[in-house]
Amino acid sequence: MTDTKRAKDQLKIHIREQNQAHILNCAEKVFARQGLAKTTTQMIADEAELPKANIHYYFRSKKDLLEAVLENILELWLDSVSAFEESDTPKFSFTRYISEKIDHSREHANASKVFAMALMGEEPFVLDFLRERFVEEIAREKSIIEGWVEQGLMKPVSTEHLFISLWAMTQTYADFDAQIKIVLNKPRLEEDDYEDAKDFIIGMILAGCGIQ
Questions:
Q1: Are 44 and 27 in contact (CB under 8 A)?
Q2: Which residues, other chains included, contact 207 with Cβ-Cβ below 8 Å and sequence gap of 6+?
Q3: Could you tell me the end-to-end alpha-carbon distance of the chain, in angstroms, rounded to an integer?
Q4: How confident is the model at residue 186 (pLDDT cuts 50, 70, 90)?
């Protein structure tokens, strides 16, 4: 293969990746705004300012497009929070985890909403992903937490319910931001609101888990 041919192929790949990323970003916005059932590929094409045929060139159907969006969201969710490490203290680990989850809600509100909709709709793609990846991850975190309990660094807790509570408390600032704005009597959430949420949730979790 000549250098010219290689350069052309690399350019094509780059353009394809850029186009796909643009379409997926627009699709995420439309799914979050319209809901999974009401969204059409035409709406996504309009958001992306592209002909509908261009959408179907990269994604054969709305189902394929939704699954691509969800895959990005799930990988983003996994990458957005640091894993617990046995060598860290529970206080450090939970403080970091909660802070990163709140930051994720603030920076990726559309992604969080689409994920919540997919869960409520019991989308098979999401359920399979959770069974394959999250069950294993929770088992790992449970082992570390049990180690901290044995060392007397925190009191015994149900790891499963602990993480369910953590997800509910942190993701609500994205999934139900309209409700939060009404409660706080604000037209939009500001950075200070998210920082206040971090402080409150961290304090409640540390106290509830008996972490000094």
A1: yes
A2: none
A3: 63
A4: very high
